[in-house]
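JOB MANIFEST
job_type = single_chain_structure
chain_count = 1
residues = 323
[input]
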Amino acid sequence: MPTTAPTGLAAYSEVTASEASLKRFLHGLPGVDQVGAEARAAGLGTRSIKTSAKAWALDLAIRMVDLTTLEGQDTPGKVRALAGKALHPDPSDPTCPSVAAVCVYGDLVGEVKEIVGSQVNVAAVATAFPSGRASMDIKLADTRDAVANGADEIDMVIDRGAFLAGRYLQVFEEIVATREACVRPDGSHAHLKVIFETGELQTYDNVRRASWLAMLAGTDFIKTSTGKVQPAATLPVTLVMLEAVRDFREATGVQIGVKPAGGIRTAKDAIKYLVMVNEIAGDDWLDPDWFRFGASTLLNDLLMQRTKMTTGRYSGPDYFTLD
């Protein structure tokens, strides 16, 4: 890593100029202490927060949810219902905030957009999700189609086979090309989230390398998982990614978001992640613009806990619509 803090990505142009220089940089990053990372994550997971802070944290977590359905059986009716829930998670309580985004396959973006308009972001998975194994022409066409359908955000998957084989420049160039495919005719662009599928990356060192690789390529967010592979999001993996975005901003002045996805199902789990965000990256990341939860079942538990705090009564899971 550079010994001085540059003021932007331009300082890293030589790093990404060739396969050799990129590999040298990524393998020169400090190694992750596996035992230390897991111990710190476990320790942060035991922190408790006061009742007043818990109410704030529940609302913040709701605002950070990317409400997700990515099944072959998804229909226009199903995603439109999900979009309605994203706008009004608890129809009986108008003070309940909307979620951050609805995440669907690209061909269903228009259905969601008709319901949410500009009030909630619409995210689309692309680039041969979830495997990432397709030609670049297909991946880019997939991305452009989702953007043309109105997607505000694109969740792309990296080619894990290329990454694990050490073909870092190939992965870098795919991210750059996908970001370019996110540009709309008016010059604005859909925000890009890069999914690593951390359950397949094998080591925390690889998670750190993938994080820096994606950030150097110009992603807006780094994301743990597709939700299709186990393990998906974990506290230690997210800790490593939060350290990476913190260090990247210190080095470049550029802030990047983080999205753990898959396996986060309870309000208790979500609050553990929020504590970690505050402790590792800092409170600048405690905002839906910089931290998201990719989830399909988390929202209902957040709503149940919120109802308990506001009414004193615990509503069962059937009180809220199933996602």
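[summary]
Residues 34-319 form a domain with the TIM Barrel fold (CATH 3.20.20.70).
The two ends are 44 Å apart (CA to CA).
exit_status = 0
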